[in-house]
Amino acid sequence: xxxxxxxxxxxxxxxxLCGAAGTHVVATCYESEEEVCGRGRAxxxxxxxxxxxxxxxxxxxxAKLKEYFLPEKxxxxxxxxxxPHCGRKAGVVKNRELLAHFFRSCAEVLTExxxxxxxxxxxxxxxxxxxxxxxWHNSWQIVAVAAGAGFxxxxxxxxxxxxxxxxxxxxxxxxxxxxxxxxxxxxxFTRSTPLPSFKPMICEIQLESQxxxxxxxQVLVDKINRGFLELNSNHPVQTVxxxxxxxxxxxFPLQSIDCCLSLLHQGxxxxxxxxxxxxIIQSPEETPSIEEMCNGLANTxxxxxxxFCRDTDKNGWVNIQEGCHISKRYYLRPSLLPCAQAIIERGxxxxxxxxxxxxxxxRKCLITSYSMPVFHEMVFLCAVNRGTEDSCIQMLVxxxxxxxxxxxxxxxxxxxxxxxxxxxxxxxxxxxxxxxxESQLSKIQYFICMEIDASGSCEKGSxxxxxxxxxxxxxxxxxxxxxxxxxxxxLAMLICGISDWRMLWTSDTRFLCQFPRGELRLFKSxxxxxxxxxxxxxxxxxxGEQFDEVAFHTIARQVSGEMVISxxxxxxxxxxxxxxxxxxxxxxxxxxxxxxxxxEVAEMxxxxxxxxxxxxxxxxx
Length: 621
Prior knowledge:
By secondary structure, the protein is of the alpha+beta class. The chain has three domains: 2-191, Vaccinia Virus protein VP39 (Rossmann fold); 226-260 and 334-513, Bira Bifunctional Protein, Domain 2 (BirA Bifunctional Protein, domain 2, 2-Layer Sandwich), CATH 3.30.930.10; 533-620, Ferrodoxin-fold anticodon-binding domain (Alpha-Beta Plaits, 2-Layer Sandwich). 23% of the residues lie in helices and 26% in strands. The strands form five sheets. The protein has a seven-stranded mixed sheet. Helix 4 links the parallel strand 4 (76-82) and strand 5. The radius of gyration is 29 Å and the shape is elongated. GO terms for molecular function: ATP binding; phenylalanine-tRNA ligase activity; rRNA (uridine-N3-)-methyltransferase activity.
């Protein structure tokens, strides 16, 4: 294990590490050997390091690390930089610049899974771990600076000098004097997975008796066909599904019908706003080949008011195309409830058996912490005798409560309350996105809500499921069908303490490695205190048109790769003379799992302005 130490003042820290088994220390400092050896105990520490076979290198610039080591010796497992400083009375700006150059240099000599340790005096880092915390502009902004080189803060803990044998800090204002390190923190950084660069993706499915190919909406490219619910998956969403299914199987005969569910639907959804649907269409020009689409030569439009025609290619795949006036429309399924209803109406339904459907569903929605453009839904439906539906509902709810309580107790000590709330007790504005959309699809009778006490991390009364009972004459005049729909993603988040839905979809292996097969655990974030950036955009709305806020949010999701966490209307203005309306929105960018720099955000903002001008026909101000 190769360890690189930078900016050593008297080499006392390096000397304390040189006895560690299996560790080769390369200790460096910025000054020459003559300058350093005059400091108290420096010569003794240097001699101790060399006697034990470690390396000591002088006059090393932390911004040019690869220049000091041969190619075969450039990879280090850990890099330490304790109390970096430009020297003398350098201010926060100069020290930020020092850290920026340092992190970029580290990226060239650190192993893929290596760590960078940076110790700073109390308040310098600018994170919530500093107590008291400085104002952001007066700190070194270490997490944002590190993000510019592709690093995320994965851990932070007190720098305990008293536990380091023989350590003595030195270098106050470039002199051989100690300085106050009470409350100092050690910041541990790791490499981030790179920001995604999504290429057009073609999805091929079987619909009715024909094969279909369509281009996936860009905002969903990294979320389609992820296989979270496959049998061998260790994703927490699959574990929640398995535990629920096992509990229900104790009370009901079960039948799974996931295999016959299609991603694409056609026709019209009653009561659902078209702006919430992902319509699948292509540009009105000649239908491109799959190769052309993959190379980005075809554009995917997301409109809800057009009809489609179909064209079969030489391989038998049907390409769905905009421009021809026929009655069929295609869209990604926004819910499994219509699938359940279709199964009932086709007669593929056994009374007395609990039928189970599960899979991802897709919806355009506004940007919030719990609003997901895709999530995994689980639907239970059961036909019971008329008059017994209430007892069936209560039995289903009891099984849900038992399952979730059992899961939650193994993960967290927080108090959990699961309740059944009548739908009439909620205003639409009180519902989360999941519940509000389900209410559009059908008449909901009950919401299943979860509460975690104030010491937990979740919002009070989060709706994780809905229940309704409906009468279908096609089955029997004496039977009533009870539906239960659960949002598996929300359940996994609440149980495992995951505060951001995007973390469920991360490609970083540090997420799934926390969940062994069949187990749920309290999630520990590997990206602490990620920096956030705010950008405003103002524009004139086209005259005579209603502004589509859902489309506005969807464009923000697309151009940022889901890096926008908040879109807030901060001002609106209407000219009395012309009636023109101007809106001003504030976008907040933040990643939950990746390094995100201010420069990358600025590029996203420029692209966002370009896209809303082109697709929403607004006039930028």
